[in-house]
Amino acid sequence: MSVSKVYVLDTNIILHNTNFIKELCDGGNNIIVIPETVLIELEDFKKNFTELGYQARSFARMLASCTVLEVEIQENVRIVKMQHGEDVFIHLFSKNMYESDLDAQYINESNDKRIIEVAASAQEYYKDKKVIFLSIDVYARMFGLFSNVTVESLREDRSDVPDFEFVKQLKLDSALFNTLDKKLITEYDPEYRNGNYSYEFISDDGNSTYGVISPGGVIHIINEDLDFRGLEVKPINTKQKFFMKALLSNLYDIHVIDARAGSGKTLMAFVAAMRLVMKGSYEKIVYVRNSIESVDKGADIGFLSGNEEKFRIYNMALYDTLEFIAKKKMKKRDVMEPQVAIEKKVAELITKFNIEKLWPGEARGRTLSNAIVILDEWQNSSNNTTQLILSRLDNNCKAIVIGSNRQIDNMYLNRFNNGLTSLLKQTKKEQSHISLFAIELDKSVRGKFSHFADEIFGDSDKQR
Description:
Elements (H helix, E strand, L loop, with lengths): L4 E5 L1 H6 L3 H6 L4 E6 H10 L5 H14 L2 E7 L3 E8 L3 E8 L11 H19 L4 E5 L3 H9 L4 E2 L14 E5 L26 E5 L5 E7 L3 E4 L2 H4 L10 H12 L4 E6 L5 H14 L5 E6 L2 H5 L1 H4 L6 H5 L3 H14 L8 H15 L2 E4 L1 H4 L7 E6 L6 H8 L7 E6 L15 H8 L9 E6 L6 H14 L3
Helix pairs in contact: 3-4, 8-9, 9-13, 13-14
């Protein structure tokens, strides 16, 4: 076997995506080295009912299916050489003596240093190979540089995020505006491309009209009086109108929304979802939120049904949205105490529109049918979680994926490799089995504080 590279993996690489190991092996051209300390850390994660626990258990299943080729014991190191399938080669690597002392007070730092020691020893053991220590954690990579170890992050961490042109401006004679509806966009814009989901048609005389483009390139002009009639909460800016038109027209299977904080993304999603349930297009609304809390604290609070009080703190965004809608629906003659009346109205909304809360850890083994599924804060979800949730949906569902790449809190993800970005990338491609819509909501409507905070601090989040 001719090997070109040896990858020594940090724990976070496996927790990010176990399947990435097969890609790294490159058809048997490379070897994967797993330090002993990584195995110990994965054993702890394996007990958790979180996505991280799922990844740890997936890797355990991979190891269990491996064939042991050789156990090599030298004076300073021990290596268990294994093979998974035809072309995945995994070496479990341990040192007989570590220079780093395990300090319970600084266990993470001690573990990092032990993993780096294995990477350094691997450079000695695989002398004729290029040994690379792979980690998402920048501090672990710095420790590696101190030890003269070649370090890299995930290749997908550095993959380019393409430029999107979800909304395109097109100059037309205003005399044509009344004839645009249900026409093909290619009749007016020969440069139309996948990813141009919404159009602002403008004329030299200062008039304008707006439309979304359905699969097949058909124009659907926005008529505010008809499209948004009767909504308790109406869209107030152009991009919100595109978003709401796309949702209410029910032309698309998946809506992907990258939005600033306070842009109304969750509120618009729920208002439209409720309208579609009222019309009988769907039976229920399923709210899925995968945030940093669900990753870090999911094991502590448990994933058992009926623990409403446990989950309430993590579903506050949902309750805030429902309370806002409830206030809009309340009648002035209501004589109850205001908060009591609001809580009663929220309960009515949950019952009337069959609103369910779902955590990713509860999704395995389930099938969601005839539902609008709202995936919130999806910048904090991995590709695996995205695949998990979307694969639970049958053909009678609609998915609304909303998040903000300016607010990533998951230490295992960044703006290049999270589930929201992966779906955004797909919006530029022609899809044969599913219809996509995407837009960026870049205006805060929550108020001056949200707008100020996003303007001042938002750009720094993009660098994560």
